[in-house]
Amino acid sequence: MKPTLKTFAVAACFLIFAAGSGARERVPPQTYGRVIIGNHSAGAGLAPVVFDHWLHRARYTCRLCHVDIGFSMKAGATNITAATNRQGFHCGACHDGKRRYDGKIIFASCTESPVGKEALCDRCHAWRKNIAHENDFKAFAEKLPKDVFGNGISWEAAEKSGQVRPLDFLEGVSLKRPALKAQKDVSIEANVTWISDVVFSHKKHAVWNGCEVCHPDIFPIKRGEKKYTMLEIDEGEYCGVCHGKVAFPLASCEKCHTRPTF
Amino acid sequence: MRKKIAYCVFILAAAAALVCSVAVFPDNAFRSAGIACAQDDWKAEFEDICFRTDDSLSLTNEELRRLVSRCDALKPRIEKLDETERKVFLQRLRMCRDLFAFVLESQEKK
Amino acid sequence: MKKMSFLFLCVLVCAGIAAAQSQSGMKKRRPLPYEYGKVVINNYSEKAGFASVVFDHWVHRSKFTCRLCHVDIAFAMKGGGTNIRAADNMNGYYCGACHNGKLIIDKTAVFEACAKKLGGENGRRCERCHSQGKNVKPERDFMEFASRLPKERFGNGLNWEKAEADGYIKPLDFLESVSIRKPALAVPKEMFFEPKGAEMPDIIFSHKKHTVWNGCELCHPEIFVSVKKGSRKYSMEEIFEGKYCGVCHNAVAFPLLDCQRCHSKQV
Q1: Which of C109, C141, C187, C194 is most enclosed, with most CB atoms within 10 A?
Q2: B72-109 pLDDT tens trace
Q3: Partners for C (CB, 8 Å, 3+ pairs)?
């Protein structure tokens, strides 16, 4: 009976997680990490905003946007308005028409009276509009280390090799602090026998997130304080806050459950 | 007899005038006359106790115990005030009293 | 067959429970600099037909110490905890201790809180505080206020400690006929706390920096009850939940997100 039960359990889990993450939500690599934001767009007579993570995460750390600038990690929860952008918050922290990246001016978001209004707004307010992207994903991804799922890019390898150098500091927004020591690797027990425990690397995550992205909002400080299951993770909580929408998806089981058990 | 009655009437009238004048004369008049009004006593007592909170660390255990007792004695008087004053000053008295008790306990456990 | 069916049922039930859960494990938005320290008070406002009161700490903490409001005027440290009524304000207590139309701050009379007659000019005055959900233009502009103050990260984006130390702001600690004249405060020494478990720098707690704003009775013993150092353990879980340091540093003072502000003693 045991081998049949084990096989069934493994098959059931693959079905659930493949259906729930990789297979059901398998989107083209350039679309993975896309966030649609539509709190107030309709009221302003504009299409909802399309935000593609791949372009931004190549240039900035997750921490910069989600801690220093303060974006929520849930679409629509930040409550961005044209007013907050114009005040220099949210998107406007960079998209102010003055700040430069790589020598180029970053276009201003939500200008009061833009010339050729529609064309400018459409750069972001592009949901279901046939807008040609300013930056080409294919050309961008061509030379980067490959991965199977998500964007098809191994962001970890790309950062390690220096092919992407995400900025962790924004003048006028960030403040330099003495770095905190990266915590040790953590072993998270899988309460079943047919898949290995997870070896969680603080060091690899801190490169993108520092401490503040995850603690205490997503993960409590005290180890063992919270028991979470793959079902919750699949629902977009805990690890699933990132791994399922922007970072490599949960379909890549072997990236976390690193040791084979059978 | 008539003189005695007249005398008593005069005393009674003077007493009545004194009682009625409480509503007529301001508190200051009585204070300046050396007669403190009961309604200001509790506030003066409160200020006299609680002005020591900021240098409570320099007080002896005995002084702290006395201050805590005075707070406890003042509490029933504050409880008789009208609603708003009662709310505010019970809170202020509690913070003051609890601080003295806290400092006392810290010093005793040293 | 029965075992397989049972297992399948368990998996379905777990999926259902997981779907129904909507707590924690999510990264919230960070409040904008002018939103940080906002308290919404609604003990009686809606019942009386008004919008809830919106109280912004940044305006007040630039002019008064925490101690003046939370000890002398006896405001609670939690929205709704004071149980303020319009009558209390009109009698010169709570908000009415300053908002009485007579007290002069920065050469201006502080507007009166609450009125017996409603509507007209009074209606506009009500909306200055009873403004939750209403598009009321604030009298004071945060960006203009913040432009001249030293900056910090998170919270209001301002270094309130430096602003006070360098004289950019001079918060009042005494209100005539409310506060009690006291001798100078005796400041206890700095304290060091060693975090257990995580490899974080030790915490340097400065009594001096805190008493500038709080005096003694604001923290002791209501927030910090321990009479002997080491007799009580303060966990970060409890602090993040709004206890101990979290009473202030979760809502009004620089937020707990800024770990190195406290964990600053490099070993």
Answers
A1: C187
A2: 999 999 999 999 999 999 999 999 999 999 999 999 98
A3: A, B
Average pLDDT of C110-117? 88
Nearest residue of chain B to residue C189 (CA atoms): B57
A122-134: pLDDT as tens digits = 899 999 988 877 8
* Residues A226, C24: C-beta atoms closer than 8 Å: yes
pLDDT value of position C30: 94
* The one-letter amino acid at A114: P
**Nearest alpha carbon to residue A80 among A129, A40, A30, A136:** A40
- A44, A167 Cβ separation under 8 angstroms: no
Copy the structure tokens of residue B9: 């009437």
pTM for this prediction: 0.83
Q: For residue C139, which of C147, C128, C131, C125 has the smallest C-alpha distance? A: C128
For C215: left if phi > 0, alpha if psi spans -120 to 50, otherwise beta; the answer is left
Q: How far apart are CA A248 and CA A151, in angstroms?
A: 8
CA distance A9 to B10: 107
Q: What is the DSSP string of B9-40?
A: HHHHHHHHHHHHHHHHS-HHHHHHTT---HHH
Helix axes B38-50, B61-78, angle to 10 degrees: 150
Six-digit token string for A208: 């993108």
**DSSP labels for C111-153?**
PPP--SS-STHHHHHHHTTS-TTS-PPPSS-HHHHHHTS-B-S
Facing A183 at nearest CB: one of C11, C28, C198? C198
Query: Using CB atoms, which residue from C184, C186, C227 is nearest to B106?
Result: C227
Chain C residues near residue B88 by CB distance under 8 angstroms: 73-74, 93-94
Other C-beta atoms closer than 10 Å to the C-beta of C185 total 20
Query: Mean pLDDT of all residues in chain C?
Result: 88
ipTM value: 0.85
pLDDT tens-digit map of A3-55: 566 666 555 555 555 545 444 557 899 999 999 999 999 888 899 999 999 99
* Highest mean pLDDT pick, A72-76, A110-114, A192-196: A72-76
Q: Is A250 exposed, middle or buried (0-12, 13-18, 19+ CB in 10 A)?
A: buried
pLDDT for res C231: 81
Give me the residue label for tokens 């927004």: A173
- Is the Cα dihedral C252, A176, C29, A96 positive or negative? positive
The H helix count followed by the E strand count for chain B is 5, 0
- Which residue do the tokens 């707690």 mark? C205
Distance in Å, alpha carbon of C265 to nearest chain A alpha carbon: 11
Record: contact C183-B88, CB cut-off 8 A: no
